[in-house]
Structure formats: C-alpha cells, structure tokens
User: Which sequence fits this backbone?
C-alpha cells in the first residue's frame, strides 16, 4: 500500500545545494537543487515483502548504504524542486510496487496461420514470374 504524503515527509531527509548549469546570479546565490534521501529498510509503512520488492526493483538507484536518492534541480525555486522530488518518489513507489500479471500463453488461430501461408505462396509465385525462363 502506498504511503501518504505526510508519512513520506516524516521518513525522508532533504539536502539542498546550488544548482549547476545556466542561470547567472540566481544559480550562484540560491540553493535551489533538492536531494531527497529515503531509507527503504527503516520505512515503517512498508511490510517486509514490499521492502524486498523495492530493494530488488530499485537496486540500481540505491547506494551502498541502501538509501534511495531522488534529485530535482529543474526549477528556480527550492520549494518547487522539493515538491517534484516527493512526486518522483511517489511515482517510483507506484511503479516498483505494481505486481505484474502473469501472461497467459495463447495459441495462434488456424485462420491466421492459413492466411499467412497463403500470402507467402502468392508472394513466391509473384517472384517466380519475374525470373527468366529456363532453357533446356
């Protein structure tokens, strides 16, 4: 089950720093880049199965301590970047905790096979007609 926004805010740490790139004086003065750090292991709102699922699916995003880092530096405002990191984290949770349905194997219908073979033979005859006749 997905946590509420308040539960997320209680369990994350925010770090701010100066954003890179263009922006002139604003970039040099304001710490608008926001990094959200979330500890998957100590999250009280996930059960053990959900934690293992998160660790497996987000393995490439976790650091050596098992912390998940989400960064946003798109906006000039620290508050907007903070909101975007929370939205990104919730989106990651949704995608990671979604259980994939098992695929049911199906057979190819007879009519489809027959029409494919018929099309192949028509194409073969068309190409055969383009060849030069054999002289014996």
Assistant:
């Amino acid at each position: 089950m997905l946590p509420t926004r308040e539960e997320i805010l209680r369990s994350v740490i925010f770090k701010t720093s100066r954003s890179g790139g263009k922006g002139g004086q604003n970039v040099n003065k304001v710490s608008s880049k926001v990094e959200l750090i979330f500890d998957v292991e100590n999250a009280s709102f996930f059960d053990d199965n959900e934690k293992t699922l998160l660790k497996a699916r987000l393995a490439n995003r976790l650091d050596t301590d098992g912390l998940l880092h989400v960064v946003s530096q798109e906006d000039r405002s620290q508050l907007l970047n903070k909101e975007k990191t929370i939205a990104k984290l919730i989106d990651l949770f949704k995608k990671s905790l979604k259980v994939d349905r098992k695929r049911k194997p199906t057979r190819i219908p007879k009519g489809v096979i027959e029409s494919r073979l018929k099309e192949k033979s028509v194409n073969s005859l068309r190409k055969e007609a383009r060849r030069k006749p054999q002289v014996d």
User: Anything to note?
Assistant: The first strand starts at residue 12 and ends at 17. The radius of gyration is 28 Å.
